[in-house]
Amino acid sequence: MIRPDGVFMDGRSGAVPKANEHYSKPVAELRGLYHDGAAFDDFLRESPHAIGYEVAGYRQPGSDIFFGTTTMYPGKIGDEYFMTRGHYHVRDDCGEAYYTQSGTGLLLLQTREGETSEVEMGPGVCAFIPPGWAHRSVNTGSNPLVFAWFCQTTAGHDYGDIVTRGMRRLAVERDGHPTIVSNPAF
Ligand code: PAN
Ligand code: ZN
After folding, report:
1. What's the gap in Å between 23 CA and the centre of ligand 2?
2. What is the edge-to-edge ordering of all strands in the sheet holding 105-111?
3. Nearest protein CA to atom 8 of ligand 1, as residue
4. pLDDT tens-digit profile of 44-82?
5. Range 80-108 average pLDDT
6. Domains of the chain, first to last
7. Which ligand is the nearest neighbour of the Cα of 88?
8. Whole-angstrom Cα distance, residue 109 to residue 131?
9. Which of 14, 68, 138, 181 has a CA 20 to 30 Å removed from the CA of 20?
């Protein structure tokens, strides 16, 4: 029998002391994600070791659900805000919830059929990600964006489609404000 537990997730730092899965994603590994390749090269020359985001997960073997936090650092590559890779779930019947604890951001979503949507991320807002929708989070603020996520363990991540084609819409800064624009390269 799997035992119940109480798991503290720090809403400011994103730290999850009981997490048993972690990774840090260096910006250097996100080549090709940002629309301005020259700005990406400039950024890496200045900050070759910058971390874009960190993920901490709590998973119990045999359970159907797992959860954790994503902590996204603030920054931009050219006019495009720091973002996660973005993915579809391999299982088309698995959605997810993103509960923002601190910071400000945007969640970009799209379906394989070509629909798009955005959800504003801010403290206390729980984004509902329905099955079948790819999702990418973007930190549009000047502080870390911390959100807790809750997902099925067997959902699976399909990054391939977005790595090769990008997403239909981009979150960029225009006149000092976050703005959604069509991705000319999609
Ligand atoms: C999240 C994401 C996390 C990092 O846990 O995996 O925020 O984003 P990428 O995986 O797109 O780089 C989630 O959506 N899990 O399913
Ligand atoms: Zn997901």
Report:
1. 15
2. 116-121, 105-111, 133-139
3. 84
4. 999 999 999 999 999 999 999 999 999 999 999 999 999
5. 98
6. 21-182 (2.60.120.10)
7. 2
8. 11
9. 138
Q: Is the CB of 80 under 6 A from ligand 1?
A: no
Chain-centroid distance of CA 112 in Å reads 18
From CA 61, how far away is CA 31, in angstroms rounded? 34
Are 140 and 81 in contact, with CB atoms under 8 Å apart? Answer: yes
What are the CA-CA distances from residue 51 to residues 140, 144, 153 (Å)?
16, 12, 26
Q: What is the 3-state secondary structure (H, E, C) of 105-138?
A: EEEEEEECCCCEEEEEECCCCEEEECCCEEEEEE
Residue 13: which residues within 8 A CB-CB, separation 6 or more? Answer: 71, 144, 146
Six token digits for residue 79: 């006019």
Q: Taking 90 as the threshold, does the pLDDT of residue 161 lie above it?
A: no
- The structure's pTM equals 0.98
The amino acid at residue 68 is G
Q: Does any ligand 1 atom lie closer than 6 A to the CB of residue 105? A: no
146-162 average pLDDT score:
97
